C-alpha cells in the first residue's frame, strides 16, 4: 500500500514538472515570436479626397530593435509592400541609448524605396532633453522629412495629401503643449486629405480629439498592443488607461475621422512583449465609389 502511494506521488511529481516545463517553454516561444517575428496588418481607408489608390506603410515604436542584420528582414517586408510613402510614428529609438545608428541606417534604406516621414514620440523628445542635442539634422540627412508640430503638402498621383506630425497628445483643449495645439488648429483648416502622425493616441481616443479635430486619418503607436496580450481578453496594460485597456491596437472611427493604432515593432520596457507579434501597418487609401 505504501509503495502504491509513493508511486502515485512520484507520478504526480513527474506530471507537475512536465506541466511546469511545458508552460515555461510555451512562454519562451511566445516571447521569442513577439520579439523577432513580423506580421503585416492591412487596413483600407476610403475618402472622396483620394483620386486613386495610395499605399501607406506605418512603422512605429522600433526602440532600436533590429530584425536581422541591419534590419534586413524589416526592410525586405516593407519593400514587398511597394509603399508610396512610409510613415514613422515615433519611439524609433530609446531615450537612454545615445547611438542613432539603427534608426539612421533604417531611414537611409527605406528612403531609397519611398519618401519617409518621421514624427517624434516621447522617447525622441526625452532623448533630446537628456543628451541636450537635436536628432532632426541626422534623421533628415539620412533621408526622412521630420515633422514636429508642422506639416508638408505632397502630391501622390493626382491626390494632394497634407502630412502632419504632432509631438504630444493631440489635445482638443489648449492645454499641455501649446505649440501642438496651435499647429493642429491651423492644420485642420486644410481642404486636402490630412494624414496626421501622432504618436500618443490617448488625446485622440480617450479625450475626444479624433471626434473633434478635422483630420482624415491619424496614425499612432505608443501602446505596444498592451505589451502582453492575454488570450481571449486583449492587451494587459496601457500607459494611459492602466490594466485591461480599451485602446491598444486596431482601427477606430469617430465623426468620419479615422485613427489606426499600431502595436509597434519593439518594446522599450523591462517587461517583454508576450503573445504580441511585432507588426508593420499597411494602409490602402482608396477613392470613394
Largest beta-sheet details: 6 strands, mixed
Unreliable segments of 5+ consecutive residues: none
Secondary-structure element sequence?
HEEHEHEHHEEEHEHHEEEEEEEE
Structural class: alpha/beta
Number of E-type strands: 16
How many structural domains in the coordinates? 2
Distance between the termini: 80 Å
| Shape descriptor | globular
The CATH class of the largest domain: Alpha Beta
Structure description:
- The chain is α/β, with parallel strands linked by helices and 289 residues long.
- It has two domains: 1-36; 39-287, Purple Acid Phosphatase, chain A, domain 2, CATH 3.60.21.10.
- The chain is 31% helix and 28% strand.
- The chain has helices spanning 2-36, 72-80, 101-110, 122-131, 136-142, 178-187, 202-205, 209-212; strands at 38-47, 54-59, 85-89, 116-119, 144-147, 150-156, 159-166, 193-198, 217-220, 229-230, 234-235, 237-238, 242-243, 250-254, 257-261, 278-287.
- The strands form four sheets. The chain has a six-stranded mixed beta sheet.
- Strand 10 and strand 11 form a beta hairpin.
- It starts with a helix and ends with a strand.
- The model has no long low-confidence stretch (mean pLDDT 88).
- Residues 54-225 form the Calcineurin-like phosphoesterase domain.
Descriptive labels:
289 residues; transmembrane; Purple Acid Phosphatase, chain A, domain 2; Metallo-depent_PP-like; hydrolase; six-stranded mixed β-sheet; Metallophosphoesterase_sf; alpha/beta; globular; Calcineurin-like_PHP; 31% helix
Amino acid at each position: 500500500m505504501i509503495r502504491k502511494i509513493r508511486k502515485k506521488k512520484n507520478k504526480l511529481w513527474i506530471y507537475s514538472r512536465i506541466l511546469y516545463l511545458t508552460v515555461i517553454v510555451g512562454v519562451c516561444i511566445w516571447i521569442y515570436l513577439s520579439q523577432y517575428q513580423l506580421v503585416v496588418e492591412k487596413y483600407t481607408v476610403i475618402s472622396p479626397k483620394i483620386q486613386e489608390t495610395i499605399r501607406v506603410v506605418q512603422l512605429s515604436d522600433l526602440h532600436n530593435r533590429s530584425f536581422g542584420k541591419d534590419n534586413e528582414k524589416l526592410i525586405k517586408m516593407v519593400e514587398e509592400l511597394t509603399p508610396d510613402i512610409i510613415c514613422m510614428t515615433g519611439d524609433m529609438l530609446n531615450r537612454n541609448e545615445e547611438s542613432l545608428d539603427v534608426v539612421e541606417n533604417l531611414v537611409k534604406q527605406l528612403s531609397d524605396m519611398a519618401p519617409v516621414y518621421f514624427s517624434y514620440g516621447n522617447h525622441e523628445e526625452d532623448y533630446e532633453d537628456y543628451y541636450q542635442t537635436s536628432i532632426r539634422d541626422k534623421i533628415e540627412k539620412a533621408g526622412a522629412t521630420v515633422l514636429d508640430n508642422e506639416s508638408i503638402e505632397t502630391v501622390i498621383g493626382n491626390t494632394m495629401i497634407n502630412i502632419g506630425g504632432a509631438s504630444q497628445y493631440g489635445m482638443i483643449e489648449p492645454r499641455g503643449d501649446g505649440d501642438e495645439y496651435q499647429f493642429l488648429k491651423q492644420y485642420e483648416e486644410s481642404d486636402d486629405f490630412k494624414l496626421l502622425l501622432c504618436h500618443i493616441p490617448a488625446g485622440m481616443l480617450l479625450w475626444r480629439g479624433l471626434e473633434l479635430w478635422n483630420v482624415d486619418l491619424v496614425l499612432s503607436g505608443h501602446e505596444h498592443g498592451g505589451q502582453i496580450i492575454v488570450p481571449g481578453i486583449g492587451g494587459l496594460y496601457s500607459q494611459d488607461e492602466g490594466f485591461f485597456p480599451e485602446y491598444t491596437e486596431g482601427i477606430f472611427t469617430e465623426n468620419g475621422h479615422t485613427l489606426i493604432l499600431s502595436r509597434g515593432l519593439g518594446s522599450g520596457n523591462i517587461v517583454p512583449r508576450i503573445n504580441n507579434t511585432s507588426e508593420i501597418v499597411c494602409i490602402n487609401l482608396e477613392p470613394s465609389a
